């Protein structure tokens, strides 16, 4: 099997990581593209002594760490999500967010994450704790949950409340989700794809976003329905069954890039 064939299944998830890390689909994809170009230009530089997925993320980390984020200050004044990103990054070290995303969202072990960001394993654990503490200090929100499985909905609600957020409601259908969102506008939406009456969480989110902007996290057993590369994809996508730490990390990161929670 060629290297390209080995890496192909991991690219949608690397793109997810890039978007979560940068807060921008455009910027995230630029880093992924640069990573692939580097691999094509010098295939002998690709790490062959580790799993292909680990090697791919290692190459990405090399591209990311070599970029000078401060150079963005020379660009025109930032607006929207980009301005939010800069405000947040001014308060947090990128390394701690990388450690958090790699372990909690991408599922790497602390040992693998240490290899990827070139630190000791115990340093990864410290960085993750630092990232969570900093994000929790910066962000508070009211959350709408769209989930038709009662046990899963209860679990998600507990996670949300444990993080210090409020829950505006739990919807099990598209119509109910839209109704709750219009009645009490949330600052974050957590949505399943397949709902109780065979309606779609994707359609519910589209209806909500047509009325107002709000960050969205999809939690689904069908990630392939969203990670297609053929249309704008969600920045935050969690695959069922999920770990509580993954949901916590995604919530923190989604709010990290939301303008309404930027500290004064």
Automatic annotation (TrEMBL):
PROSITE patterns: RESPONSE_REGULATORY. InterPro entries: CheY-like_superfamily (IPR011006), PhyR_sigma2 (IPR053866), PhyR_sigma4 (IPR053867), Sig_resp-reg_PhyR (IPR014605), Sig_transdc_resp-reg_receiver (IPR001789). Residues 142-255 form the Response regulatory domain. One of its GO terms (biological process) is phosphorelay signal transduction system. GO terms for cellular component: DNA-directed RNA polymerase complex. The keyword Transferase does not apply. Pfam families: PhyR_sigma-like (PF22233), PhyR_sigma2 (PF22029), Response_reg (PF00072). The modification 4-aspartylphosphate is found at residue 192. SUPFAM superfamilies: CheY-like (SSF52172). Keywords: DNA-directed RNA polymerase, Phosphoprotein, Transcription. It comes from the Bacteria. NCBIfam families: PRK09191.1. This is DNA-directed RNA polymerase specialized sigma24 family protein/CheY-like chemotaxis protein.
